[in-house]
Hints:
Elements: E1 15-16, H1 28-31, H2 36-55, E2 61-67, E3 71-76, H3 93-99, E4 103-104, H4 123-129, E5 131-140, E6 143-150, E7 153-163, E8 168-175, H5 187-200, E9 205-210, E10 217-221, H6 227-234, E11 246-250, E12 256-262, E13 269-274, E14 277-278, H7 284-303, H8 316-320, E15 323-329, H9 347-367, H10 369-402, E16 423-428, H11 430-439, E17 445-450, H12 462-465, H13 472-478, E18 495-499, H14 504-520, H15 522-526, E19 530-533, E20 538-542, E21 545-550, H16 553-565, E22 574-577, H17 586-594, E23 601-603, H18 609-620, H19 624-634
Parallel strand pairs: 2-9, 13-15, 16-17, 16-18, 18-19
Antiparallel strand pairs: 1-4, 2-3, 3-8, 5-6, 5-8, 6-7, 9-10, 11-12, 12-15, 13-14, 19-23, 20-21, 20-22
Amino acid sequence: MEEKFEHDYNAEQIQVLEGLEAVRKRPGMYIGSVSVRGLHHLVYEIVDNSVDEALAGYCKNIHVKIEPGNIITVEDDGRGIPVDIHPKTKISAAETVYTVLHAGGKFGGDSGYKVSGGLHGVGSSVVNALSEWTEVTIQRDGGIYQMRFEKGKTVQSLTRIGDSEKTGTTVRFFADGSIFETLQYEYEVLENRLREVAFLTKGLHIVIEDLREETPKKGDFCYEGGLVSFVEYLNKNKEKLHQKPIYIEKEGEFPVEIALQYTTNYSENIYTFVNNVNTIEGGTHLEGFKRALTKAFNDYAKSKNILKEKDGNLLGDDIREGITAVISVKVKDPQFEGQTKTKLGNSEVTGIVQSIVNESLSAFLEENPNIAKGILEKCVSAARAREAARKARELVRRKNALETTTLPGKLADCSSKNPDECEVYIVEGDSAGGSAKQGRDRRFQAILPLWGKMLNVEKSRADKIYGNDKLNPVILAIGAGIGNDFDITKIRYGKVIIMADADVDGAHIRTLLLTFFFRYMRPLIENGNVYLAQPPLYKLSKKGMEDIYCYTDEDLAKAFKELEERGISRDQVGIQRYKGLGEMNPEQLWETTMNPEGRILIKVTMNDAMAADETFSLLMGDDVGPRKKFIEENAKYVRNLDV
């Protein structure tokens, strides 16, 4: 925990920039969206206020609860929001914070905070404006104070309701269902975010409880190791090139803290934070880190004759292969792009981070020659693979240029060329592919059959992917390239639909394809273009009755119950259990799985890149133990599985 920032924190530090306006009319401007992501953002805004108290040295514990009915409570043991009257608004400082946009204790050098993530001063007021109701309880100055709001308007001004020697703030709110698309919080998403916050704030104790189900869920996080613990957690299912992460820390005008570790994996995973805010689009701190990493390794390799002058320099991509790094900087006046704070813009941060990393990393490499040698051997190997991939890519391009079409031969394309209305089904097996081709709507549906064992890209470099007879047709059909060359604006289909059997082999093919998309076409998932088709498991039939298709065992039980209510017993009904897509004729496949009017598609989303990376590494990597544990723990959630 950082030392306390000694400064007065009372009503005079709450500065008012402008009134609360337009939040309910244009919520996306303040929280990004009104989807489930925006809903979770409400929780982050309140938690970030508590974390700012921890960064100032006053808060040691944060407790988050998801109560029945999707009510959120966030409690901390910080100083408590000031309760005295604000000199400008003439109401309490606490009420000012919750009812006036851009009112907070985090502006300028004379604020109550040294550094803060909530620098726009909109968090509390925006959460209040977008909630059906909000209750705030403050313990401070020997008293307990409470206030209540409905849709941003005060219905109970700050009132002293008791005495207390404790300090802290408790915020309880219920999001407005007329604004958000859903009010259903996802526990795992919140749990991942709060674990992340605990890693970033050394010694801060965070508890999250989900009390909505009969059996509550609970996460309890506190990490004295900080970023080192964070990197160890991210790499727990990966084979490491060196056992202990490299740790860099430097206090000063911009405190910088970095932990990094190399693994045998081929992908890079770098996560950046400013004042504990996840800058998912990176920014100047990431730029400084990358420059320093490239320079330090090239300088060392040249000085030790690992690289000859004629070899030229290793590229940044070569040096970052297999790296897991977490970069955390504390900036007093950060310039973010937008309220959602996804990219840091302070130009001065680049040089500071670059200088610190270059100096620290160069010293580490000199002091640890065996580790340096192991990492550089991997970097040189990556450079050779990059060159092989370039040649393979050029070969594929030349080959395609000589052919009359650049599309794979097995692809049955659609007639429309408008990506917004086109979709491609990637289908397991030639038999199912044949039925899909006959049953589809040729105007907007394309079919690409796949067969045989697919490459596991988690264990392969890019040079093995170009020209691969299973993956190359997928790359060509989608038409947007792969890896760093991938351009989402060039995709030929707005929906990429994986259609595989509802059995073990089908699940394996889905996982292999999703791993490929995640590692080499990630924007396709981030943009919401990837879907899973859900074919039926059962068909119920009886003479004189229209066939009934059931997609889950729950659907089957419900269908039998409805039939019994109509006087039809189970033994009067024929039941067919589909073992694979190939068992359905073209008409059935269209009716059940491909007709937009009645099909079930599951959109593949990626709310948390860290969690996704961990899952793919676990499922597709070499470490059997954690994978076995994952399967044992999650088997109870599997519904559609043939053995």
